[in-house]
Amino acid sequence: MKDEEQAAYDKALKKIEKCRRRGAGGTTLDLHGLGLTTLPPRIGQLTELTKLDLSSNHLTTLPPQIGQLTELKELLLYNNQFETLPIEIGQLTELKNLRAYNNHLRTLPSEIGQLAKLERLNVSRNWLETLPREIGQLKMLSDVSLSNNRLTTLPSEIGALTALTWLWLYKNRLTELPPEILQLKALNELYLHGNPGLDIPETALGPTYEDVRLRKAMPKPPKEILDYYFTTRGREGVALREMKLIVVGWGKAGKTTLVKRLAGETMNPNEQETHGIMIRPLTLGCTDGELRARVWDFGGQHVLHAMHEFFLTARSLYLLVLEQRSDRAETDAKYWLQIIRSYAPQAPVVVALNKSRGLARPLDRESLERMYGPIVAWIPTECLPEADCPGAEATIVKLREELTAAAEEQWMPEPRKKFPRKWVAIKEWLESLDKDEKNYLDYDTFAHECTARGEPDQQKQAEVAALMHDLGVAMNYARDERLRDTTVLRPDWLANGIYAVLRANLFLPGRPLAPDALLTPGKLGEIYTVAAQEPVNMLKVTDYPAEKWKFLLRLMNLFQLSFPLNEDGTQQLCPTLLRAEPPAGTDEPPVAESIRLRYEFPVVPAPLLPRFMVRMFPLIQQDRLWQRGVMLRYPSARARVWTTAEEKYLFATVAGPEADRAELLAIIRGTLLELFCEYKELPVTEQQWFDGHWVPRATLEKFGVLEPEWTEQANGEEAQS
Length: 721
Hints:
The chain is of the alpha/beta class. It folds into four domains: 3-236, Ribonuclease Inhibitor (Leucine-rich repeat, LRR (right-handed beta-alpha superhelix), Alpha-Beta Horseshoe); 242-414, Rossmann fold (3-Layer(aba) Sandwich); 423-577, no CATH class; 591-714, TATA-Binding Protein. Strands 1-2-3-4-5-6-7-8 form an eight-stranded parallel β-sheet. A seven-stranded antiparallel β-sheet has the order 24-25-26-27-23-28-29.
């Protein structure tokens, strides 16, 4: 034995002897972190011991004498090098808590089944490949952690653990679950994340343990997880093999023509600009079979960008269409990629460099991919007839090939996930409805039809509604109780209805329909009447009856396209309908009296300022707001907040008495920072005007000009230390 090992052994002997002499007073023995490689057999003399801490040593075995500690209630063995536990551990019949995580355990002895009073078992971060069947004898077991092991199956006897409330199986190699696990009626938390062989999507697994403990998320009820698993096995489950392909880009980039060419149609040189959304099918021949895509072709007008949150979802494939010949191609790429990443951080993107005649324009693709990946491919495309542009057809073929590659399981596993067959029956029923006659249905009808097709569970019905929303079959905004009662069957009905409202002041030259930007249900009716007539002719007025005007108005408020001016929300102000020019009295306060902020972006997200207005409405000075800016007052301080036409900066200048100015500045900054957090992966630099220059806030803090800000992260680190 090495000197340091002998020293640790001797120290342990002294502690054991001291504990023995205390007799009944020595019920706890702490041998934590001594560097032990061997535990002295004399440990067996401590027959009155109730707690033994052997954690954070170098132990590989326990002496048989451990079995003599028949009064032991708590045994801590974590952070050692155990490969097995002795069979004598089964003699510890009073044991309630066994913690042996972070070892090298390959098996647990069958004698563990004799620990009839065991309540907590933690053997995470070991090398366990199986569990003994005798584990089913532990009727008192309530908490079990088996994470980070090599388990491929669980014994059927696990169903006998009827007192179990918490089961952690995170990061194993499970390929199936025994049906007996359904007998665990007391189970409150179940974590199966990190077991790809179970083929359970993240949405069905719910929040991770870290999300629940650190971020206060609500754990997914185990019954729902297990119901999903067992209703999608074998004949009970089926993969939908459907997805959304969302096409975005500026107007006149050629999106609609490109979509039609992908479907085998010829180019129409007089193609009309898309208003709202057009949806059409497209079949992709993936290596594992055909995959059906619903292609959503978004109109590219700037006013539409604030609507994207209605429809952009994470489980989609994106096609970004840029006009290759435009000098703004790289700037446009940043703008649209930022919008995509705001709603779908990891969704695959294919970029079409359109109107290129097959020639690729130089772009800093490496930087764009680093900032906004994953970008699967960059494809120069041309929609002209082959006779006018030889090689044009090959660019369309190449684009289709790359879209198909991006739809493979590597990028898009969701379409291959299995769902209960009864859910497929519900989807087929929704698709069978005559959507020319029925644009929407009430939620009670939807729930009734779910029940008729074998899904009576209300929570499951909500999951079906969410799935149909993600697939684009039918839209439902259940997160707002006021909107939950309506399921939209035609997304284009919703998009075109709101698009008409946002464009209302442009329909009649010189006669805006909402000159004051105020909306009421009746005003929506007036807008739809005009939108249905020549020369606008963008919708059918019969599709938008009076009974749905309030619903559409509420939906605009939900997505912060408008904000209510009264309690019932029947009067709302829509920033998009404001005048383009700043009204009188909205000049920037004098610099000498002000604090000036500037936020720099690759591109300012289109909905950002309207959302800021919605949240700051109580502080807005009457009639002093326009499409790109707003004047605020609180209490005696005043501020101007605005964006510029080049879509790169947002400015905020605050003036007034020092205390009031500081308070208003804090409100503005806090609101903006909250909004920035809603855009995932949004690069933004806060700057302040100092000594004649715009200087990053981080620099001013570093050199002591500004006090460093308190943050939750810093506070957490301080508490931890």
